[in-house]
Design goal:
single chain; Glutaredoxin; seven-stranded mixed sheet; two-stranded parallel ribbon; 32% helix; Thioredoxin_domain; antioxidant activity; Thioredoxin domain-containing protein
Length: 226
């Protein structure tokens, strides 16, 4: 499948689209319009749970939930994992108060302008295509968990073993079509307007596998909280 080269992440001032997804941690559906007119919301759009880095970003967002609630801000985590697989994961790895939704088709990521990065043999056109050589030259570090900076493929394998994470057929299906899905977090105000974001898209992959500091995120939250 060829990479779409017309996707650009939503920027502050853009109106977020409505997306309707299957809820993981509760029954029924979750829609972004559920928050519109009610309260601001932090939307985390992540890869599937097969992504070791995303599992950590999801946990980090969940840890901030009490502070977000205190400021009247909602939180929604979206993962590219089929609903039953995702429910099983969170059953064994419960995160109190986590509101999560399943989006295996990655519709929400496209709606927010996050490209699905295509890995190629020798062509790089960031953020739509990247050669395997360039990808392997990237370095990622998770202090306290990795022995040091590693290429993302080796780091992912190391963290999976550390987590005792077993890749299932559902995970493999997601990896086959969305292994390079770029991710991000978007803070929407009460009217559904983007006020802040952090994505993997800018600067040729400099922010790949990273995330905002809690201080940066909560500083942005303070600007939209009433």
């Amino acid at each position: 499948m060829s990479a779409r080269i017309d996707l650009v992440p939503l920027q502050p001032g853009d109106r977020a689209p409505n997306v309707v997804l299957d809820a993981i941690t509760q029954e029924g559906k979750i829609a972004l319009d559920d928050f519109r007119g009610q309260k601001p919301v932090l939307v985390g759009l992540f890869r599937g749970l097969h992504c070791a880095f995303c599992r950590r970003h999801i946990a980090a967002q969940a840890r901030l939930d009490p502070e977000l609630r205190e400021k009247g801000v909602g939180s929604l985590t979206v993962v590219n994992t089929p609903i039953e697989r995702a429910r099983l994961y969170f059953r064994y790895h419960p995160m109190p108060n986590l509101l999560a939704a399943s989006d295996p088709e990655r519709a929400s990521h496209r709606a927010f302008g996050l490209p699905n990065l295509e890995f190629t043999e020798n062509e790089t056109n960031w953020p739509y295509k990247v050669s395997m050589a360039v990808a392997k030259d990237m370095r990622v570090d998770v202090p306290g968990e990795l022995p040091g900076p590693m290429d993302p493929f080796a780091a992912s394998e190391f963290l999976d073993k550390r987590d005792h994470y077993e890749v299932t057929e559902a995970d493999e299906q997601m990896m086959a079509t969305g292994h390079g899905q770029l991710v991000g977090q978007f803070l929407l105000d009460r009217q559904g307007i983007v006020r802040w974001s952090f994505t993997e898209v800018p600067e040729g992959g400099r922010y790949m596998f990273g995330g905002p500091s809690p201080q940066e995120l909560m500083s942005a939250v303070s600007q939209v909280a009433q």
